[in-house]
Amino acid sequence: MADAKRTIITQEIKTIEKVSAFSLTMTIDEAEALTAILVKVAGSMTNSPRKHTNAVLMSLEKAHVRDWEAPGHPFSLLASRAGGLEFKDFRPEPKPFHGVTF
User: Fold this and answer.
1) Eight-class DSSP state of 41
2) Contact at 8 Å (CB) between 52 and 40?
């Protein structure tokens, strides 16, 4: 005789979804200024908003925006003692509670 029990398993699911997006047009000077800012961003590349700022930086690099280490780049105009921006990690998702609370 067959028997079935309901359980929970861990399974990786990959989906394709439509998401809202933006297109941004900027001048070379604006793109270089944004690059100078983005290279100062720190934080986890996988568990913080830094992964998004890094994606923008990579897009600018693919578009051949001048390397931030090149002479005359706006990055050289940032104060030498100026700190960067650091993202904290995303909060972990709360685990669902299945049980009794007293």
Assistant:
1) E
2) no
Contact call for residues 31 and 37 (beta carbons, < 8 A): no
Backbone angles phi, psi at 75, to 5 degrees: -55, -35
pTM: 0.65
Tracing tokens 């509670």 back to the chain, one arrives at 97
Total count of residues recorded for the chain = 102
Q: How many CB atoms lie within 10 A of CB 7?
A: 5
DSSP single-letter state for residue 42: E
* Per-residue model confidence as pLDDT tens digits over 49-63: 999 999 999 999 999
DSSP state of 28: H
Distance, CA of 80 to CA of 26 (rounded, Å): 26
49 close to 87: Cβ distance less than 8 angstroms: yes
